[in-house]
Amino acid sequence: MSAVAHKTAERQLSRFPVAPGDTVTAWALSGISETYYPGEVALAEDRVNYRFINGFVDVGDLPCRVAVWKDIAERTVELETDWEVESINLPGFNRRLEFSDFWHRPTRLKRWCKTVLEPAQDGDVPFRVATCGGVHIWVDGKLAAKFEPYSRNKEQQAEITLPLRSSGSEIIMLSEDMAERDTNWYVELTLLGDQLVTSAIPSSADPEVIRELMALARDVRPVGEFCTGNPLVLTFDEAPVSAVEISAQVLPSVHRRGTPPILSAKTVLEAGQKTVEIHGLDCMAEAYHPLNLAFSVGETRVFRQIAFALLHDVQPARDNGGLKQRKRVALRHAADHGDLRIGRAFAILASGDGCTRLCRELIEYTLESVDERRDCSDFVLVPLLWLYGAYRDQLPADLAATVKASILNYRYWVDEPGNDTMWFWSENHVLCFHVSQYLAGLLMPGERFTASGRLGSEQLALATERLSKWFDSVESHGFAEWNSAAYYPIDFIGLLALEHWGKDEIAKRADQLLSRLFKMISLHTLAGVPAGSMGRAYDKELRAGPCTELAPFATVAFGEGWLNEGVAALPMFCAGDYEPPAELTRIAIPEDGQCVEAHYVQGYGHAGRLALYKSAAVQLSASVDSEPGSKGHQQHILDVRFAGHAFARAWVNHPGEDDPWGHQRPSYWAGNGTMPRVGQFGDAALMLFDIPETHRIGFTHAYAPADAFDASELHGDWLLLQSGRGYAAMTPCKALEPVLSGPGQNREYRAEGRKAGWVVLVGDLPEGQGLEAVRSLLDEVKTSFDPSEMTLSLKRPGRPVLTLNYREGLTAGGKPYPFPHPELEPKISFGQAAVLGSGATDNS
């Protein structure tokens, strides 16, 4: 959300045009009212069918939403006018008036909004209102419209008319929602018809000051894709005419809301300057950090959130000391430098430090999450149970008793009464809830559990049955969240605990699935960075691979990479006895001149049909035939990773939202607004996009941060990239333009148009050669894209002609090329790497 804060009581009006089809985004805003609103304790409907998908699922109506519907059916909402303006939302980054966020507990939300609308002439003016929650709109003091779908995170729309006066009508809107964890709280008020309307808000600021601050907030970005230490340098397209104060904050993760900022700094962007330095990074962990910025001139402030990656060494460390030694080093690192979560307390105890003051604080903070049944408390309950089972003799007696009480009082499944908003329904949460119930019953078989009324032995028996269903599903269908650097660490929480504590068949199945996970990680990791196509991804996993929770797993398992603050499950891996198969190192770290190819499927209904080509220098991975034309979610479809640099990575997608720093699902960079048709054949991939007219973003784009590559350039309509001995060439078979300003500068290349055919080629460069060799290669490469037939062809000397048809799929050498191995167990082959100009053969 962009916002401008004011304190002056007497203000003039600042006006902003709203054209037909545009949304009203200029609003004066009250503060946000948050009320804990759990509803009545009840059982929930168990809709888990163990058929996991990537996307939102219908989970039924939780007690908080039932209570809201009952309330809105009976209430009368009165207009309030005496609220204080806390901030002002201005046009700029988002066509929504958006307040989306994450609330761990059921929370009822409301916010008052005010603007003045001035049409060309008096009369009823049509609008379309879109929201997931509830909206009331008063015009000049009279209720003119209300719309209250309260459908959790599912947008609903209604057409309304507002009686407006050409001299200006005061609009007061109440926006409400019911927060159940991640909450899409927004309003889109879209102008229909054919007349222009002006929106006006109170402002004491000079309009030129507002314009300047909004331009700074719109265009701000780090100078590079990463920083290695102090300072963080921010850059802008336009220099201000007068000095602008900048406040910067990095807040703790969503799991530690309410604790002090990690970074709080102030600086000044001087008049005429386009860069500014942010200091204070010395003690910050290596991570991908959200950065909250406030730009101020006098009493006028504009807010913006961006992000940056901090990594001190962009080359991976290598350790051939053996798995046991690497585990000891990583466990010590987690104990000393891990994130302030239960995993660090686990590492402290597992390292033999005893229950230190910090360890106690972390356990007590975790107990708050468990006792309040916050969403994601199942993720921390599993390591807490392991900690209690293995190290309770090291805990002070009072703390051990409190931990035991929290375990007994927890709600372990939807068949136990509750009125929380814990998420029971996705692949990773189902596992962690079942494992929690299993471990709790195993550790306390004769104790009575409060929520269910069952004995621990009964909980154990029920959890064993449920875990069998989860294993049956994943063993049959694979992971819906395939290769996810965000969610594999959550799967590890549950599976490592079962491998260590489980009995008989449960432990055996956990061991087998752990080995399957590590095999997939070995396939898609290059130079220490887990990459490749992912079933679920966020910006941080894509733009900062070494900083993900998954990266240290690859480091410990294969001896190459980075350790970071991630402690979701890594201490459990390091303290336990499980060892990944030794032969996976050969796959994770190919020999020079060798390539690895693989095909396999993951997810219900073969949602991910995964193809991989990898050499020691470059990796190409894609999920082929993934429901082309459908709306995407968080599927990362095509990925190119280079070994030469920690951040050398590229991909192509269709943006899911307007804001390059946004957090929607899909977002600007993570996921696809419209899913493409994809085919991969060895070291080449073809992508076809057919974006419907109803989607407001009519372009596709490539991500390739220039500072992570040894060389990058445009050659005609081709984007050429080099990192180390790896290269990639990418073209949309039409004009490809670099983004020269704003957050996409030096990172983004756009292809305008709703139909596009992208070709992506990768390979190894001959020793001592650079992009000049790739340019020579491309002189002999022919591509052809027919948008009417939605067909894309690639011709290369000495290679079969590849043709991708949007309806029929891929052909190679004129013959259909169906996906070659639709099985969960990867089919892996080794061969000669495709060195440019060598005439290497395909191994597909």
How would you concisely characterize the structure shown here?
The chain has four domains: 3-203, Jelly Rolls (Sandwich), CATH 2.60.120; 207-310, Immunoglobulin-like (Sandwich); 317-588; 594-776 and 818-832, no CATH class.
Choose one word for the global shape: globular
Question: Regions with pLDDT < 50 over 5+ consecutive residues?
Answer: 1-11, 839-844
Supply the number of helical segments: 16
Radius of gyration equals 27 Å
Helicity range: 10-25%
Q: What is the strand tally?
A: 45
Q: End-to-end distance, in Å?
A: 47 Å
How many domain regions? 4
Q: Report the sheet-strand fraction.
A: 25-35%
Biggest sheet statistics: 9 strands, antiparallel
Please identify the structural class as seen in this structure.
alpha+beta
The overall average pLDDT, rounded, is: 94
Descriptive account of the structure:
- This protein is of the alpha+beta class and 844 residues long.
- It has 4 domains: 3-203, Jelly Rolls (Sandwich); 207-310, Immunoglobulin-like (Sandwich); 317-588; 594-776 and 818-832, no CATH class.
- 23% of the residues lie in helices and 31% in strands.
- The protein has 16 helices and 45 strands.
- Strands 2, 3, 4, 5, 7, 9, 10, 12 and 14 form a 9-stranded antiparallel β-sheet that branches. A 9-stranded antiparallel β-sheet has the order 37-38-33-30-29-28-27-26-45, with no helix packed on it.
- Helix 8 (427-443) packs parallel to helix 10 (488-501).
- The longest helix is centred in the middle third of the chain and has 22 residues, at 456-477.
- It is globular and about 75 Å long.
- The two termini are 47 Å apart.
- Residues 1-11 and 839-844 have low confidence and may be disordered.
